C-alpha cells in the first residue's frame, strides 16, 4: 500500500503571504516584459515625434515666409510705386502725396500680415525718399540701406539679406539691374524681427526642454530660441560649422555633445528658402524617465514583497476579525437599525472604534430628532419672512389722489375711496396669521382694483370674475393675488394711455385651482418671457423690482409643495398671463 505524502499544515498567516506573492509574481513578470517592449517603442516614437515636429514647424515657417514673399511681389507691381519710381519728376505735388499715402497704406497691410515683420520700407532714388511703415512721414532717402540691400541680394540663392545685424527679405526692380550694373529704380526691404522669430522658436521646443536654432546663413549669426550661454552657443556653432559642407538628406537625426551632455539633434532644410531648422534636446529628458522607471520597478518589487509580509501579518492579527464585526454593524445602521455593538475586551484601536461607534449611534438618534425639528422651524421662519416682504407700493399715490378729491370737495367719492383704503390696510395689519381663506384673499385683491380704479378709470378696465363658492373656504397664504395684479399695473397697464384691460378669472384643472391674471399690455417676446420665468429662480430677490413675484412663487411652493407654483405665458389679450396654481391636495410638499 502506497503511503500518502503529508505536508505540514500552514497557518493562516503563511497562506496569506503565499497567496499575495503568487498573485503578484506573474503580474511583475508580465510588467517587466511589457516595460522592455514599451521602452523600445517609446524611444522610436520619440524619434518620430521629433522629426515630425521639425517638419511641421519648418512647414509653418515656410508658409509664413512664402506669404510675405507673395505680398512683397504684389507690392513690386504696384501702379503707384511704378509711377513714383519712373515719373515722379512730372507728377504734381498733389499726385505724389496721394500716391505716397496709398503706398503707406499698402505697407501697413504688409507689416500686419505677419508677426515676423518689424518694418517694411521702399527706397525710391528718383523721389529721393524712403517710405516706411514705421514712420508717419516720408523719410529722406537712405543711400546706405539702398546700396546694401541691392549689393547683398541674391534672389537665385535665398531671399534673405543680412545687413548691419538686421535680417531682410529684399526685392528690387528691375531684377536685371544686378546683371547690367544699372541701379534699380526702387528697392523694397522687409525687415524681419529677430525677437518674434525667437519667440516662435521657443514654442517649437519639446515641452519646454532643449531648444531650436534657425540657420539662414552659415556666415551670419544664428537665431536661438533661448538665450544660450556663450559656452553652449560656441559649441553649437562649432558643431554646425563641422557639418556645413556635408551633403546629407534634408531631414536627419544626429547626436551632439555639449558640455559632456549628449543631445538628440534633428535637422530639416528648406529647399525653397535655403534656411535650416535645428531642434535639440538632452537625451536624459527623453530617455531619463525610462531609466527611472526601470530602477523604480525593481525597487517597487522588493518593497512590495516586504509589504506583503507585513500586511498579511497585520491583517491576521489586528484587522480581520474586528473589522468584520464593524462591517456588520455599519450594515445594520444602513438598514436603519441603530442598535449598539458590544465593546471589545482589549483596549486597542478597535475598542476605540466600537466605543465611538456606539456614541455615534446615540448621537445620530438625537440629531435625527433635532434636524426634523430644526427644518420645521426654518421652513416656518422662511414663510413668515417671505410674507413680511410684501408691502403696498401705491401708498403715496393714494394719499395724493385723496388730496385731489378733497380739494375738489367730492365727498361721496372720498367716502368710497377711504372705505376701500381702510379695508385694504385692515387686511394687511389685522391678523398675524400666515394663511387666510381664498374668499378673503380674493376680496382683498378686488379692493385693490377698486382703489386703482379711482386713478385709472378713464384708461383701464377691470374684468374681475366671481369666485366659485366651492373655493371660498380653501386656505391659502396671505397676499398671493394682489401682488400679481399690482405687477400688471406697474409694469404694463400704467403705460397705456387708453383701452387698458385687466382680467381676473378662476378655473379648476387636475384638482388644482387656477387663478389667472392677464392684461393687454405690451407684447411679450420669447426673451422677455424667459426673463420673467428667471425671476422665479433668482438668488437674491431683494435686489430686484419684482421681489413680490418671487415671494408669491416661493410661498406657494412652501405651502403646497412642488404642485403649487406661479407660471407665466403670453395672454390672448396680447400681454402677460400669470397663473397662480393652488393644489387642492398637498402631495409633494417640501419636507419640513
Radius of gyration: 45 Å
Largest sheet: 6 strands, antiparallel
Biggest β-sheet: strands ordered side by side in the sheet: 3-2-1-6-5-4
The rounded distance between the terminal residues' Cα atoms is: 81 Å
**Segments where pLDDT lies below 50 for 5+ residues?**
1-7, 386-391
DSSP strand count: 18
Q: What structural class do you assign from the helix and strand content?
A: alpha+beta
Mean pLDDT: 77
Q: State the helix count.
A: 15
What proportion of the residues form beta strands (DSSP E)?
A: 15-25%
Q: What sort of overall outline do the alpha carbons produce when their principal axes are compared?
A: flat
Give the helix proportion (percent range).
40-55%
Describe the structure.
The two termini are 81 Å apart. The protein has helices at residues 12-76, 79-86, 93-112, 143-152, 177-180, 194-203, 230-242, 283-334, 349-388, 395-407, 411-429, 438-456, 482-491, 526-534, 547-560, and strands at 117-124, 129-132, 139-140, 160-163, 166-173, 186-192, 211-215, 223-224, 252-258, 261-269, 276-282, 435-437, 460-464, 475-477, 500-509, 512-519, 565-570, 576-583. The protein is 52% helix and 18% strand. It is α+β, with helices and mostly antiparallel strands and 592 residues long. The strands form four sheets. It has a six-stranded antiparallel sheet, sandwiched between helices. A five-stranded antiparallel sheet has the order 8-7-11-10-9, sandwiched between helices. It has a five-stranded mixed sheet with strand order 13-15-16-18-17. It holds the Pfam family His_kinase. It comes from Paenibacillus spongiae. GO terms for molecular function: kinase activity.
